[in-house]
Amino acid sequence: MRVIAGSAKHLNLKTIEGMDTRPTTDRIKETLFNMIQTDIPGCRFLDLFSGSGAIGIEALSRGAAEAVLVESAPKAAECIRENLKFTHLEEHAELMQTDVFQALSRLRGRGAYDFIFMDPPYNHELEKQVLEALRGSDLVDDYTVIITEASLQTDFSYLDSLGYQMKKYKKYKTNAHVFIEKKDA
């Protein structure tokens, strides 16, 4: 796995051994960032369930002003620290080694993020729980784009009832990126 573009382009990132994480492939990561690249420079990026940190690091490499990476697993958090140091992007990054819901609580009062990316373990409805936690939070405003990496079987029919709408759905062979925003008032 490598950084696709920007200041850390072509640098190889470490990943965690085993099946505890599911790194986003370079091809899928490249497709994702091609869709959002014009909005990345200067943005505030929140990466939930960060794994190796590859998504947050890609955002920083492409010019995000800041990125908060949230990961509770100690081995994965150490991997993120090493990747941030190796790519020389640690200055604009904050690693929160904690549960995602505790992190969301601690981040309150810091203002809205331009992008909130989450890649939770599949088929546990964690994306729904995160969206419920973000509802009414100052971490999300009318311009925030929430991107969820999910299995193809993940049901998002509840979005409307939580005050969200699906902006875009990008399907891959085994998973999808779901672009979500607050529903128009």
In short:
Keywords: Methyltransferase, Transferase. This protein is an alpha/beta fold.
Question: Explain this structure to me?
Answer:
With 185 residues, this protein is an alpha/beta fold. Among the domains are: 51-89, no CATH class; 99-185, Vaccinia Virus protein VP39 (Rossmann fold, 3-Layer(aba) Sandwich), CATH 3.40.50. Helices cover 27% and strands 22% of the residues. A 7-stranded mixed β-sheet has the order 3-2-1-4-5-7-6, with helices on one face. The longest helix is centred in the middle third of the chain and has 14 residues, at 74-87. The radius of gyration is 15 Å and the shape is globular. The protein starts with 25 loop residues before the first helix and ends with a strand. 37% of the residues are buried. The model has no long low-confidence stretch (mean pLDDT 91). InterPro entries: DNA_methylase_N6_adenine_CS, RNA_MeTrfase_RsmD, SAM-dependent_MTases_sf. One of its GO terms (molecular function) is 16S rRNA (guanine(966)-N(2))-methyltransferase activity.
Topology:
Blueprint: H1 26-36, E1 44-48, H2 54-61, E2 66-70, H3 74-87, E3 93-96, H4 100-107, E4 115-118, H5 126-134, E5 145-151, E6 164-171, E7 175-182
Parallel strand pairs: 1-2, 1-4, 2-3, 4-5
Antiparallel strand pairs: 5-7, 6-7
